[in-house]
């Protein structure tokens, strides 16, 4: 059985973060391991608070998992502080050196701000992650607001009008593949764009589903892609299957009534 490690924050309501990652990884037939980076208090109505886990505790968790389980895919979500990000980068760098790097996929979902607007990452953490973490990644999966932040580090403007140009700029500048998620755009269709380092561009278009239950969508997608990569799919196939999994989960969740706000995927 393939092992997928998720490094992310905890959501006590179960709709996002570590909890949703584990559900998704298990649904794909993989074994999920976890390293918790932040303990949040949140539910379907929003994030109430977020407490970063001390860096030495994050390091201890990573050491315990990586010295024993040897995951073939790693999904990274919330990295709340630079100190936590430094620990993750240092220990993942050592782990990848000890393995065949080609055989270990790293998927990073840059969780910067919650859907309700709560900041989940310190500014100095963003700068450090861009400089040090991206080079370890197989894929980075920003939404459109996060894409604007990343582009601003490359250019003195925000999101380029043509999303294809934006993706090419990011994948070339950071030398890693990007999946730009289009869920924040308007219109009856939603398109995510995959930009690979060899210049290949692949759109994934689905019908927009009218629902108020979208809590944890980004966590679900990145975990699904990581699981598919662990199972041996090439990147474009893993993204396509991950998208299919999320779309099916959204459809199942349309009529669910879990919580009083933005409900989770089921």
TrEMBL record:
EC number assigned by the record: 2.7.1.49
Gene Ontology terms for molecular function: ATP binding; hydroxymethylpyrimidine kinase activity; phosphomethylpyrimidine kinase activity
Record carries keyword Transferase: yes
Coiled coil: none
Gene Ontology CC, one term: cytosol
Protein's UniProt keywords contain Nucleotide-binding: yes
NCBIfam families named in the record: HMP-P_kinase (TIGR00097)
Name the UniProt record assigns to this protein: hydroxymethylpyrimidine kinase
Species, as recorded: Prevotella aff. ruminicola Tc2-24
């Amino acid at each position: 059985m393939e092992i997928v490690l998720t490094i992310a924050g905890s959501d006590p309501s179960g709709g996002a973060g570590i909890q949703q990652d584990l559900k998704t990884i298990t649904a794909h037939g993989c074994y999920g391991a976890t390293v918790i980076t932040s303990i949040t208090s949140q539910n379907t109505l929003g994030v109430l608070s977020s407490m970063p886990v001390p860096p030495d505790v994050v390091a201890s968790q990573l050491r315990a998992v990586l010295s024993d389980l040897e995951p073939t895919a790693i999904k990274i979500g919330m990295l709340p502080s630079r100190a936590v990000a430094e620990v993750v980068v240092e220990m993942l760098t050592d782990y990848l050196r000890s393995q065949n790097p080609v055989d270990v996929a790293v998927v990073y979902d840059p969780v910067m701000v919650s859907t309700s607007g709560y900041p989940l990452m310190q500014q100095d953490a963003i700068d450090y992650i861009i400089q040090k973490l991206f080079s370890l990644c197989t894929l980075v999966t920003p939404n459109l607001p996060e894409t604007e932040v990343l582009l601003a580090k490359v250019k003195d403007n925000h999101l380029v009008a043509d999303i294809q140009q934006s993706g090419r700029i990011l994948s070339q500048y950071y030398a890693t593949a990007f999946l730009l998620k289009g869920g924040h755009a308007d219109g009856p269709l939603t398109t995510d764009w995959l930009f690979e380092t060899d210049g290949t561009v692949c759109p994934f278009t689905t019908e927009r589903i009218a629902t108020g239950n979208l809590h944890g969508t980004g966590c679900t997608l990145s975990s699904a892609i990581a699981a598919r990569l662990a199972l041996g799919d090439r990147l474009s196939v893993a993204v396509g299957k991950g998208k299919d999994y999320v779309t099916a989960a959204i459809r199942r969740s349309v009529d669910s009534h879990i919580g009083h706000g933005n409900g989770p995927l089921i």
